[in-house]
What does this fold into?
Amino acid sequence: MTSIGGNTDGKPCQFPFKFGDQWYTDCTVDGRKDGRLWCATVKDYNTDGKWGFCPPKNAPVPNITVFRQNQDREHVLVMCSFGRRFTESSFQLSVEGEHNYTLKNPLCYSNEMCVFDVNVSTPVSFTCVHEINYSVNRHSETYSPSDSHKEGVSLFYICLSSSIAVGLIILTVAVIVTIRRKAKDSINTTTTDTDNIYMNA
It folds into this structure.
């Protein structure tokens, strides 16, 4: 990995490298207040002090799906699918319409998608933003009630279905544990009976 800037003129990162009392096998933000990833270009940064910034990862372009709520047409769920997420990823939704604002704390259901709960006055434009180490990708979509957006199930049903899924998983685990315990008890009982037969003989 070729470094950028720093004091080594683009020399490659050296992994592992030592910084302070710790060894690093990847780029780090330790020692910096601006949150930018860097690496040492020598084995021991403490001795030589040679370093450079790590090149930014490309932020995948997000996709947008807007779910219109049946019971409240001004209440929508905006799902941003970000493809691959990284530990350095940050996500936000920009809303432009009668009022312009940005939401920065999505509810993420998996490693690939996050949902924003929004009340809007239409028409409105949504922009999903994916940022990684100053690399930014975005995707916008205009929404109005007349558009053929998906009729969304309410947040209640999403929570309900999530709860049912979790409940089924817990139930399945409980059944497996019970079956294993019964099998183990059966083996122990058989062993005890066999021992008693030998002792009586």
